[in-house]
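input
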Amino acid sequence: MRLVDGKLSFALMRWGLLPSWVEEPKTFPLLINARGESVLDKPAFRNAMRRRRCLIPTDGFYEWQAGAGGRKQAYFVRARTGGDGAAPPLAFAGLWETWTGPNGEELDTAAIVTTEANRTLAAIHPRMPVFVPSEAFDRWLDCDAVPAEEASSLIKPADDALLEAYPISPAVNRVANDSDALIAPISVQASFQQESPSQAKPSKIKKSDDDQPTLF
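output
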């Protein structure tokens, strides 16, 4: 979601920001996360932070907690449920770029801005996405009226009361699985019992910012 001619506009983008100056996208690492502490300085992100900020709507995300013996426990993270039992949607702070190829082809790409985890998520992972509250949407999206330095004040851990996280089945690690059951709560013990040694496969997880390749 971005601001176009003063109006909110939705667009489909590839996750993994591709700076406009990249010559060969096939050999460039996927920049899926942008560390909030350095978005004003890193060449890959600073122009987008100044001119192309966006919001990425979500109703939740997966995170993995490292455990004993190399095991990783999957968690589902979402906004805390309200009185009606429903979890309200959230909005990640994002940056986007349009890459133009030598033949005029264009590719819109985006990355999620991250920051240090709050107390709710710190026990699971040291980093978390930046969430922009609805009352601050304009401050983040309006790149003409709001300088990057001012918008960067929104880059901070979410309030501890905003999110809840609970363990889910290791079935989420297999791309063939796609159902509502993937985000159903489950005990950690039951999760490990579901994944016997004969069934265990390497988890396909996103890299954290600390593991993500960087050129700068």
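quick obs: Confidence is low (pLDDT under 50) at residues 196-216.
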